[in-house]
Amino acid sequence: MTMNIDVTYTKSLKPKPIADNIAFGKHFSDHMAVIDYSEEKGWYDPRIVPYEPITLDPAAMIFHYGQTVFEGLKAYRTEDDRILLFRPEKNFRRLNLSSDRISIPTIDEEFALSCLKKLLEIEKDWIPTAEGNSLYIRPFIFSTEPNLSLAPSKTYQFMIILSPVGSYYKEGIQPVGIHVEDEYTRAVRGGTGTAKTAGNYAAAYKAQEKATQEGYSQVLWLDGVEKKYIEEVGSMNVFFKINGEVITPELSGSILEGITRMSIIEMLKDWGVPVIERRISLEELYDAYDKGQVEEAFGTGTAAVISPVGELNWDGRKMIINNKQIGELSQKLYDTLTGIQTGKVADPYDWTVEVK
Ligand SMILES: *Cc1c(COP(=O)(O)O)cnc(C)c1O
């Protein structure tokens, strides 16, 4: 796909948020990238335009049948003022996998990435400089055809918006408490759990409400069929260090394959730390805990990178992990991965991509 990306500049630049306390997802930069899709033309008219509300027909299919997918990644500013993306090609790969699952036409991944790079060149000043801050990038696609019949939309829009975000850990890394959810289900094999599509997140709110009421910050999701096997924590993948071995649930058909997860597995293998992807039941985890073998637990995702788990509550059965402190391995993974992402430590895996 070789197309010119048309640029329309905004007439008035917005003020940037104050660096030391930027709320997540509330500030947006001056411009956004847009590409349209129609059956006849395919993806067409790529452009960068001022950030502004969009107008959709009330019958636009997105409102009724929910065909929409999204991605999340970050741009980091290095100490020597370079701009780095972390494995962005994986995000556009996954965007297409998500789209395919819910019958949205795929997009040229390289071209989509080149639109992002062009947008970032224009919006460079929106990438915060303060330690721990970054520019969150949200590519997404939604169906736009005005039509109430039940069939995939014939038209779509792809967009990228940018949002400066503060440090996830303003007061240092605090392990979180987790509510084990055994009533509601996030996803089942054969469903849409492997796709970053809106409905999965709407379906998760009820359980999150329960967790919040009980004073826990996240939900541990179990498999939707037997309610026995561990799947994810909140919207993060999950890892346990048990008796010297790191275990993460295998990609079962209902788990979202995180790029952080993928990177953590590669790093552990590289370091010679035993890491295995397999089914792990809650019973097995609690048995190991009773034997004193559960050493560390953490979630992984773009927002927090590593989120240590300090406590689990499964219907009153409480598990305190590593005395509610971040574990040694979790800390090393966090330091190394964030170091690579921000250009502070060497990137032996060639994961970062510089935007010039
Ligand atoms: C996005 C997401 C993750 C983490 O993916 P990353 O690529 O590591 O950010 C994990 N689980 C769910 C459900 C997600 O939506």
Automatic annotation (TrEMBL):
Catalytic activity: L-valine + 2-oxoglutarate = 3-methyl-2-oxobutanoate + L-glutamate; L-leucine + 2-oxoglutarate = 4-methyl-2-oxopentanoate + L-glutamate; L-isoleucine + 2-oxoglutarate = (S)-3-methyl-2-oxopentanoate + L-glutamate
Entry superkingdom: Bacteria
GO biological process: isoleucine biosynthetic process; L-leucine biosynthetic process; L-valine biosynthetic process
Species this chain originates from: Halalkalibacter krulwichiae
A GO molecular-function descriptor: L-leucine-2-oxoglutarate transaminase activity
Residue numbers bearing the N6-(pyridoxal phosphate)lysine modification: 196
Enzyme Commission number(s) from the entry: 2.6.1.42
Name this protein carries in UniProt: Branched-chain-amino-acid aminotransferase
PROSITE patterns: AA_TRANSFER_CLASS_4 (PS00770)
Family statement: Belongs to the class-IV pyridoxal-phosphate-dependent aminotransferase family.
Cofactor: pyridoxal 5'-phosphate
Keyword Nucleotide-binding included in the entry's annotation: no
Keywords: Amino-acid biosynthesis, Aminotransferase, Branched-chain amino acid biosynthesis, Pyridoxal phosphate, Transferase
Pathway stated in the Swiss-Prot or TrEMBL entry: Amino-acid biosynthesis; L-isoleucine biosynthesis; L-isoleucine from 2-oxobutanoate: step 4/4; Amino-acid biosynthesis; L-leucine biosynthesis; L-leucine from 3-methyl-2-oxobutanoate: step 4/4; Amino-acid biosynthesis; L-valine biosynthesis; L-valine from pyruvate: step 4/4
